[in-house]
Amino acid sequence: MGVALLPQFILENYEVHEWKHSCAILNADFPDEWNDLIALLSHFRLCKSWIAEGGGRKSKVSEEIDRFLYGRGWLEKKFDTSFKVDETLLESPTHKVDCYKNRIAVEIEWNNKDPFFDRDLNNFRLLFDLRAISVGVIITRCDNLQKIFDHLERGKSYGASTTHMSKLLPRIEGGSGSGCPILVFGITESLYNENC
CA–CA distance from 38 to each of 25, 34, 57, 114 (Å)? Predict the structure, then answer.
């Protein structure tokens, strides 16, 4: 079954990859979170103005995804994690998850340096091993958006060493994320909207 559980619109407009039955887990065990993700991905369009504008702390893409999910009860989440070995308590800090709800973690990697993928996947691995999350989801951009960035004369801001699908897949296929079920969505050029 896998990705076939997703609506046709998402399969046609996103590059989708799954590992360790993440779609089946979300669909069967976390239907509310599954429906939130489907609603988000069905609603999302990539606005020209978000690409044309430069800089800022957080991208407009990330802000839009956060806004949508926060409106449905998701939140940014930092976990307080540690291990105890005999009488020694070992702190094991994790970074904040962009959007979290009921054991589902979502990271948005639009235009960060590509080592952010390592951080996200290691975080998913650790949180899954600690039974704090059941599925990790990453939303990033597809490589084919580069021609749009170049056309808008923003290509240098979206360089080869930033977060995009071809930087992510080898990491997951190479074992990053370990046992954590992972679902990846790549934003494609078909979602681009010149009129917003």
Answer: 14, 6, 27, 26
